Amino acid sequence: MEKEPLNWTICQECLGRGKKSRRISKKTRLLYQIALDEFEKTLGKGTAPLPPKGNLYSCPDCSGSGLLATANPPEANEEYPHIAIIGGGIGGMALAVACLHRGIPFTLYERDKDFNARSQGYGLTLQQASKAIQGLGIFSLKEGVISTRHLVHTPEGKVIAEWGTRKWIQSDIKTSSKRTNVHIARQSLRLALLEQLGGNNKIQWGHQLLDFKEHDDEGIDLSFQVDGKIKKAKADLVVGADGIRSSVRRQLIGENATSLRYLGCIVILGICPLSALQHLNNALLDSATIFQTANGNERIYIMPYSSGSVMWQLSFPMSEEEAKLLSNKGPGALKEEACRRTQWHAPIPQILSSTDENLISGYPVYDRELLKPEVLEKSGPVTLIGDAAHPMSPFKGQGANQALLDALTLARIIFKGCRPLSDWRKAGIRKNALMEFESEMLQRSAVKVQDSAEAAQFLHSEIVLHESDAPRRWFKK
Ligand SMILES: Cc1cc2nc3c(=O)[nH]c(=O)nc-3n(C[C@H](O)[C@H](O)[C@H](O)COP(=O)(O)OP(=O)(O)OC[C@H]3O[C@@H](n4cnc5c(N)ncnc54)[C@H](O)[C@@H]3O)c2cc1C
């Protein structure tokens, strides 16, 4: 990653929100007062008018990031609640960074022994979050690759859809409102967050959360398994950022209420170096094109992974039992199955056969039923972010985007609701911050979970073969 030269602290002008709200005009306030008076005359029978809100605009002092450069990282202010963040994946690391910038004390616990403990090799596409990461002090992703063209093919190689800035520029369609998608390896993004955090020693590696217990006035006791021994810790607030099989979630609401929901398909993933494909001289391998090919059952999606490699993701319907069996057989069997199913147009067979088995993985696809805010209502000073709160299928590429947005939103709300001299100890962190956070998070992510589940169906159906220059989601029904 490109080294960010500076530390960051929050912008005092917008208090780290990146946005400011315009003053509400006298006329609007007056109209509201009239409507309120009218409502009161109905003795509560009519509909109460909503108080006017000032329009938001990007803060000019920090250009909308909510951050300003500083010589030293801010000191933690112990007047804020101390947060135990469980899980050092995308969401947990992002939350730690956002807390660091705000002087909110935290400890980040991760079950893995170190950063590279497991193979975590797959690529992410930053969509909405490509802007949000600036709020985490990441202004450039050196390893990030920008795509300008997206193509959909039939297995014979006929192009049935094309979109992206290259197409829009050619056809003179205005692109100003189009977002830029950045493709990046998950570990590269994690590394950028780790660097913001100040390095490896800022994480309690090898700490697997076992359980936690809330005490009325003394916060929460946590127990971890560390090197085969039990270790205890304390916190005022616990945030479960521990992924789709979250143990914080299990302890909060049980496994049965919203158990894992199998979405009827398996994904097989691989990463292939472009150096192995140079002889093909294929325009699809220009490090700026995403292409997918589908036949109404199998679907393969290939995107730049780094400037020197591509990532492929093959998916197809399969029973849960068969999918588990195939996944357990390991990379050799997964590769064989993937090659057998995709004897399609170039360069697909060549990419799959040139992929090293060490860089192949595959697993059945799950999500969970949507959480309702009421389910968390009695959770006290404990909450969830990212996949722990709202796991979703990978077909919309939204999981990490939502986890990053959750992290930044939660830190911003805690900063405001639990500031020193606020009554958070008396009123409770739930009332001062978590209720607002969970309501925003669950509403924002619900549509992504649903769309991602629908995509697991229609991407493996005839619908995907419809000829139209638009992302496949635009005609899913
Ligand atoms: C193939 C694939 C492609 C994807 N593509 C995209 C994409 O393009 N765009 C996108 O936005 N999303 C994508 N996603 C989804 C995205 O990766 C996840 O949604 C995202 O990583 C969730 O982040 P998280 O922090 O919630 O959980 P994770 O990143 O899963 O992190 C959870 C962490 O918690 C730790 N942990 C678990 N249990 C404990 C415990 N008991 N104690 C301590 N630590 C614990 C784990 O070791 C892990 O490090 C993709 C996912 C896959 C699999």
Structural notes for this entry:
There is one protein chain. This protein is α+β, with helices and mostly antiparallel strands and 477 residues long. The protein has a domain at 74-119 and 187-259 and 369-448: FAD/NAD(P)-binding domain (3-Layer(bba) Sandwich), CATH 3.50.50. The protein is built from 13 helices and 22 strands. The strands form 6 sheets. The chain has a 7-stranded mixed β-sheet with strand order 10-9-18-19-20-17-21, sandwiched between helices. A hairpin with a 2-residue loop joins β14 and β15 (229-235). α11 runs antiparallel to α13 (429-458). The chain is globular, with a radius of gyration of 24 Å. The chain binds flavin-adenine dinucleotide.
- The 3D shape can be described as globular
Number of strands: 22
Rounded to an integer in angstroms, the radius of gyration calculated over CA atoms is 24 Å
Spatial ordering of strands, largest sheet: 10-9-18-19-20-17-21
- CATH H level, superfamily name of the domain at 74-119 and 187-259 and 369-448: FAD/NAD(P)-binding domain
Q: What gap, in angstroms, lies between the N and C termini?
A: 41 Å
Estimate percent helicity: 25-40%
Which CATH architecture of the domain at 74-119 and 187-259 and 369-448? 3-Layer(bba) Sandwich
Question: How would you classify the helix and strand content by structural class?
Answer: alpha+beta
- What small ligands are held by the chains? flavin-adenine dinucleotide
Compute the number of helices: 13
